[in-house]
Amino acid sequence: MGEFKKIAVSPPVQKGGSQFTPEQLMKIGTLAGADAKIEMTPFKQLYVQVPIDQHDAIKDEFERSGLEVNPAGFVTKALIACNFCKGEEAAGLETAKLLNQAIAGIETPTPMKVGYAGCALGTSEPLLKDIGVVKMKDTFDIYVGGEPKGLKVAKAKLLCSGVTQDRLAHVVTTIIDFYKENAKSKEKFSKFVDRMTLEQLQEIVA
Ligand code: SF4
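That's the Nitrite reductase sequence above. Prediction below.
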């Protein structure tokens, strides 16, 4: 039996949310094969085991059908975005797509989740993510350190307000880079935020 590799497959950031087309689901089932393990993760990616020797061809084929393919494991997950129910422009769909391109698949000390909400109703639960972005009229608020697991659930703290669209991806990747450079081994991001303090992080992104 050959070796397998796990990949993270998701629909693109789009109006309507995490919707697969029937063709995409058929492609996943057909290309992964009858014995493949396919897991639905809590962060809206499907983990699909594919044969290592077919990895590149399968990845290309998935991407041609409009799916996104990222590494599994200790990386930033694809952006966990809302459904953009208030409209593509009002909810910032293009900005969310650019943010997703900037952050998905970056190697990190522990798996990281970045949430995006197109308005303050926050139906994608951005304050329960490591980094949460909330669109407020024409600018964005960024929250850090949300912890949804265990008995010590914590909501993310406001890091900065009024971030403009053109600075958003830079600010979020700066936070991720700082975490990568300064985390102690496999230190969780929420603990890292507490250790570093909000004030220091605010200086880093200022
Ligand atoms: S966060 Fe706002 S724009 Fe996005 S789906 Fe929820 S209510 Fe709609």
